[in-house]
Amino acid sequence: MSDEYDAFITEETIEGDDEGPLSGTTVAVKDNISTAGVRTTCGSEMLADYVPPYSATAVERLTDAGATVVGKTNMDEFGMGTTTETSAFGPTRNPADPERVPGGSSGGSAAAVAAGEADVALGSDTGGSVRCPAAFCGVVGIKPTYGLVSRYGLVAYANSLEQIGPIAGTVEEAAEALDVIAGPDPNDGTTRDPAEAVGADAGVPEGGYAAAADGDVDGLTVGVPTELFEGADERVVETVEAAIGDLEARGAETTEISLPSVEHAVQAYYVIATSEASSNLARFDGVRYGHRAEGDGNWNESFAETREAFGAEVKRRILLGTYALSAGYHDKYYAKAQDAREWVRQDFEDAFADVDVIASPTMPVLPFELGESLDDPLRMYLADANTTPVNLANLPAISVPAGEADGLPVGLQIVGPKFDEATVIRAASAVEDR
Ligand code: GLN
């Protein structure tokens, strides 16, 4: 990597169509999203030389809309991390403060946008990986409702949790990219048409999601969950509360709410995510994809040696997930985590009976210094407290800059009901307008 903040693993161009709503727009693509003819490493030694034969649907839709891909961005290995430091290609630096991490796992994508190296970027968000780096780098990131954006061509980490989402400098630009990538895809059976899912009047507004970025929050009810403020850094809380106060000044009504289940979200998330990962990553066996250790003809040995190409965090998660799914422990861990997931989903559903959106800090902490959390995985996992509940409940959310604390960016997270990205975008555009 040679760009100023080491945001890119591969700088190669894929030209878009001559005309379209995104013509002239440059896009950086997270390196776990397939690009035909351009290597797609997932930030891993395992796939260092892997060149996909096809492009992800999201990438195809962007280039069909006229956007030009400028490169593949650095990321935590297979999306596993919160700092972009678990990448086999080395860390990315945060353009807001190069001694700090850009967040993760889509750190390269957020840094590329923050540094002006791309207008828009694609990330993937399994437990916060679009919103966290957006918050740390001072840009906007959208995690769409599960099923709004095709996962075809996204290298799977935890299928039931993740979505591809756009990162951009403004809410409107992120929404424009979402307009292009959203919508059913025959290649991903979990995609849905929002109008069919929630009714035509709720789904996509006329003029698309970008048209919802009008800053109009008059009459909007904003739920403020106490649990997502508790334990957060005071400087973060102050900045976020000030931004929410400004929404009130613009006619929004705020009301305190409670989401008691979210205290179990990180635990449930890490059991489910590692379980799915242990199954997904079994395909990297040296036979079908990427790196292959020679071995001496004994398949078990060559399989084991091949998998030495995974980094420490990936190995840790494969072990955790395999354990959680094993016969004797399945009910104790995996089944319990699924119960907790259902409780989180129910809590949000109950809350949305009374409020339009829910606002909180995106990350409970300011960006870590480089190296600070690498040896302390638990600390890194706990930083996902506010983002993981949203993935467990499959809801849409955005991280929008709320201001700065000690010169560092602070992100405000806005969560909405299923397929109501329009309201989330509208509220976020009001935060940005202040
Ligand atoms: N930090 C979380 C994890 O490591 C989220 C990652 C993601 O969304 N890909 O699993």
Descriptive account of the structure:
This protein has 434 residues and is α/β, with parallel strands linked by helices. The protein has a single domain, classed as Alpha-Beta Complex (Amidase signature (AS) enzymes), CATH 3.90.1300.10. Helix content is 32%, strand content 14%. It has an eleven-stranded mixed β-sheet with strand order 1-3-2-4-6-5-10-11-9-7-8, sandwiched between helices. It is globular, with a radius of gyration of 20 Å. The structure holds glutamine (GLN). The site of glutamine (GLN) has 14 residues, from strand 4.
Quick gist of this model?
The protein is of the alpha/beta class and 434 residues long.
List the helices and strands and how they pair.
Layout: E1 8-10, E2 26-30, H1 57-64, E3 68-73, H2 107-114, E4 120-125, H3 131-137, E5 140-143, E6 163-168, H4 171-181, H5 194-198, E7 221-225, H6 234-249, E8 253-257, H7 265-280, H8 299-306, H9 312-325, H10 331-351, E9 357-361, H11 377-382, H12 388-392, E10 397-405, E11 408-415, H13 421-432
Helix pairs in contact: 2-3, 7-9, 7-10
Protein name: Glutamyl-tRNA(Gln) amidotransferase subunit A
Domain Amidase: 12-424
Catalytic activity: L-glutamyl-tRNA(Gln) + L-glutamine + ATP + H2O = L-glutaminyl-tRNA(Gln) + L-glutamate + ADP + phosphate + H(+)
